[in-house]
Structures are given as C-alpha cells and as structure tokens.
Amino acid sequence: MKSKSVTGISENWKTTYIIFILVFIIIGLVVYFEPKLFLFLFTTILGNVLLVASVIGLGFFSIYFAIGIGIVFLILFMVSKIKESMLSGIPQYMQYKDTGDNIWPLEVINDFQSFQAAHNPNIFFDMKIIQKQATADEARSFLKNGKWPWSKNVQRMYKDAVAQNSYISSNPGTSLNDAQIVYNENAIKQLLTWNTKEGDFLIGGVTIGHPKNMPKNINNTVKCAASLEGDTVMHKTVYTGYSGINGVMTYDTSVVPSAEIPRIVPGFSFLAEKGVCNPCAPLNSPPDYSCPFIIDTGNGTEISEIWENLWGIAGPTKEMGKEKAVKTYNTTDNSYLLGVSRKNDTNRDEPSEWNVNTNFF
What we know:
By secondary structure, this protein is of the alpha+beta class. Helix content is 47%, strand content 9%. It has helices spanning 2-33, 35-43, 45-59, 63-87, 106-119, 127-133, 136-145, 152-164, 172-182, 185-194, 197-204, 261-264, 305-311, 351-354; strands spanning 206-207, 221-226, 232-242, 249-255, 268-270, 293-295. The strands form 2 sheets. Strands 1-2-3-4 form a 4-stranded antiparallel sheet. A two-stranded antiparallel sheet has the order 5-6. Strand 3 and strand 4 form a beta hairpin. Helix 3 packs antiparallel against helix 4.
C-alpha cells in the first residue's frame, strides 16, 4: 500500500509539473503574440476578476494546483505593476490620446505602439513623425506581416548600401529584415540619402576658404541650418579674427540666398531645367524633395541613385553585378570656383574670394 501511495504522489507531481510548464508556455505565447490580452488580464479590474475566478475554479479539481497557479498569477501581477510604474513615462508604453491632429485611426496607433512595446521595447517611436512618413494602410500591413512594406527598388538600394559600408559587418539579407521591423520606407529612404555625397553636403556642409591669421583647422563654411522661421536654409560662417576683450574667435553668420549658392559653393549647381530652389529642404520635417541639385566632389556630376528616386529623375538602370551607366546633367557653369577660369568670364569675383577648398567635413 505504501509503495502505491508513493507512486501515486509521484505521478501527481509529474502531472502538476507538466501543467505548470504548459501554463508558462501559454503565458509566454500570449505575451509575444497578444500583448494586449496580457495587459488586459493583469492590468484591468475585469481581467483580475477573471484570473481569480479561474484559480477558484481550479480549486474544485486540485487545491494544491490552484494555489500554485494562484502564486504564479500573483507574481506576474506584481511584475506587471512594477514594470508599468517604471515605464509609465515612456510614450510607447502608454495609450495614445486622440489630440485631434492624428493622421492614422486611433486604433491603428495603439495597436502599433503595443506591437513595438513588445518587440522593440528599447526603441522610441515618435508617432507624430511616423504618421507623416507612412500611411495607415502601410501601418496595417506592418501589423499583419511584422515588417514595413518596402518596394523592391528600395530593398535593393538598401542591400547595396549595407554591402558597400565598411563600418557595417552583417549579411545584407538579415540586415534588411531587421531594418524593415523598425523603419518604414520613407524613413529608410531618408537614411539612405545621408550616406551619399549629396547628404554629406547638406549635413556637413563645405569649406569655402581659410581666413587669414587663423589656425589651420579653422575654415569658413557653408552648411544647412535652421532659420528663425523654422525652415532649414543655407548659412555661411566667416571667421573674422579674435575678440579684443577675451580673445575668443569671432565670426559672422549670414543666410545665403539660394540663387547665390552656385556662386559660393564649388561644384554645386541646380539642374538647369528645375531652376533655383532651396537645396536644404530635405532636412525639414517632413522632408521636402522638390529641389534637385548637383554637387561635384571630384567624381563627376552623376547624381546618387536614392536622390534620383526622391527627385523623380529618370536615371540609368542600375543592377547589382553589372556596370552602371553614368548619366550627366545640364548644369550652370561655375568651374571658375574650382580654380579653372574661363577666359571670357568677366563677371566673377576677385581671386581671393573664389580660391576655395572643396573637401567635405
């Protein structure tokens, strides 16, 4: 009799252990695939009532098993409360309030934030910006498939960028999948623009000469910066010497009219058929890609493919593994800024003003 009793207890413990494992697996699946259901059960009054009722119901079959499950639920309840208090100040962990200027439906916004809170808890997503970058249908596609929809052309350009970037050591295919979980198509396009000569020019600017009697590492510059009105425009910074009071370097900053940029910046030109516009507009929020330009850093006037895409310019077909054709564009001539002066050019500035350096920062 004793051996049978011991065997029965052992079997009960095995059954209880298996059930506990199944419970943890089920809870884990709920947290991963349906985080909103987990939050409902452990953070709402109705959810708590359902949990208590389930524990009481289990008590009719096995009081010990019911106590064990109750302890598990209690621990998860305490963990959810601690986590909720710790993360209550982080926007993606809070229900998004309808401010009246939302572009997406409120349900899509909350579903998106719940998904990202569960899968990318360390990344902050600014919903005001993301709603301007992607449509609600793209967001629904993201929630259905677990990644943002990108066109095949953008996917190829991203793979090319990863393969050519010496600072990134990863498989282009794996990197593509990771990136599509985080970045929508318009956001990744913006990132791709920064890794081009046009992006270097807009973000880093160029040097336009060395001021007299100043250290060698100090140069006059032209770069995009925010204006008082909030838009991003081209600014010129010219160092003028040292302050007679405290010896600090002094400089003058001025806004460069768009029409004057080709005269000041070597290798820069607007597309002749598009005319004068604000080349810094892509740095606005949201970006404005209505001002195509050319910047020649010594490798010709070819425009980077991502900029052709954003500007709507029909460039040459580019395929991986094949030599790409080089397309040149009509520009205004400012070759004298590179030290190559046309003999019949009588309207240029004095040489001391156009002897400039074309190196990027």
